[in-house]
Design brief:
The chain has a domain of about 140 residues: Vitelline Membrane Outer Layer Protein I, subunit A (Aligned Prism), CATH 2.100.10.30. The chain is built from one helix and 17 strands. The strands form four sheets. Strands 4, 5, 6, 16 and 17 form a five-stranded antiparallel β-sheet that branches. Strands 7, 8, 9, 10 and 11 form a five-stranded antiparallel β-sheet that branches. A four-stranded antiparallel β-sheet has the order 14-13-12-15, with no helix packed on it. The protein is mainly beta and about 200 residues long.
Length: about 200
């Protein structure tokens, strides 16, 4: 999707902010207070329909495969995650996170990745938001995802291999609005999160 109003202000090799229809989207600070080090061009373009004064969490994972970004209107009201399994004879084990799907308001998005394996799902209550996303990963795949809501509930999917990551917004009243990254046909291979103030009809 092309957006003629998307303008880049560059510092070195990567954009430090995007200006979209006179609204500024700051590319944020990771949990360790280091500046974001990875350009996320496609993700920022798709963000142009929704982002206000939100922040991007630092991208994690190797980033191999096809890029994606959730790109629908409204607040996130549900999440589904598919755990992809390996089978050796009669023994099965979780191999990676194979697919992700979001519900925005009342409509489910297209599935990113595969829908094979065990499904983990959470439906959010009214005025409940996703305020943290953590998990585990390596350069090849995302192993574990933990979505935490403003009511203290969580969706946990995957296995405990790999290195830990933790995404959360800098602004205390922000919520998860978009998720982007890559998948290779079997596994989700990278992720980045966009946070913003709670969605309302004025954002349409």
């Amino acid at each position: 999707m092309a957006h003629a109003s998307l303008l880049w202000q560059l510092t070195g090799d990567c954009p430090t902010m995007t200006t979209i229809n006179k609204t500024t989207c700051v590319i944020g600070i990771a949990q360790n207070d280091d500046p974001v080090s990875m350009c996320c061009h496609t993700f920022c373009q798709l963000c142009s329909q929704q982002c206000g004064t939100g922040l991007f969490s630092k991208s994690i994972g190797g980033g191999r495969g096809i890029s994606f970004a959730s790109n629908m209107t409204g607040p996130i009201t549900g999440v589904k995650v598919w755990e992809h399994y390996d089978y050796e004879g009669c023994i099965s084990r979780i191999h990676c996170i194979g697919g992700i799907q979001f519900r925005y308001d009342t409509e489910w998005s297209d599935v990113t990745g595969r829908t094979h394996g065990m499904t983990q799902e959470i439906e959010l209550f009214d005025e409940e938001f996703i305020i943290q996303l953590s998990g585990r990963y390596d350069d090849e795949r995302i192993y574990l995802l933990i979505f935490v809501t403003s009511r203290g509930r969580s969706l946990i999917a995957g296995t405990t291999n790999g290195d830990a990551f933790n995404f959360y917004p800098v602004h205390p009243d922000s919520e998860l609005q978009m998720l982007g990254g890559h998948y290779n046909g079997t596994c989700i291979t990278s992720l980045a999160a966009h946070w913003g103030l709670p969605y309302d009809d004025n954002n349409k």
